[in-house]
Amino acid sequence: MAVYISNSIQEVNDMLYRGLLKRFLPFFLTFAVGLFIASFFMAISSPSFNFRRSGTHKHREIQRLRIENKELRMDVLRMKRELEEARRNSFDVTFPVEEVPPFEMDAPLPPQTKAPRYGR
Question: Which pLDDT tens digits describe the chain residue by residue (120 residues)?
Fold first, then answer.
């Protein structure tokens, strides 16, 4: 059995780089293909961190919602007051109930028949 011992540092470096290339090249190629395919479905770019514009927009939206909420509360209170006032001003309307005369039948009732009983 012959053992080959390499004394050249260049050969060791070449083998090291080949090993790294064999491991990392497929990863990077797969990653690049994945990014390429993903670019068809979504924008691949660095995010924009423009917080000043969105902050003022959010502030305006919050202010608008607060004003709308306050108006709705005022409407609810107004409607409650109107309802209470309508209840206080309502009056009992009673209609005179006339007595209903008893119902008199001219024809006699038919005789009641018993249902046949079936034995078990």
Answer: 555 555 567 776 777 778 888 888 999 999 999 989 988 888 877 777 766 666 678 888 999 999 999 999 999 999 999 999 888 887 665 667 778 778 777 777 778 887 777 765
In whole angstroms, give the CA distance from residue 6 to residue 16: 13
Three-state SS annotation for the chain: CCCCCCCCHHHHHHHHHHHHHHHHHHHHHHHHHHHHHHCCCCCCCCCCCCHHHHHHHHHHHHHHHHHHHHHHHHHHHHHHHHHHHHHHHCCCCCCCCCCCCCCCCCCCCCCCCCCCCCCC
Instruction: Judge contact between 79 and 86, C-beta under 8 A.
Output: no
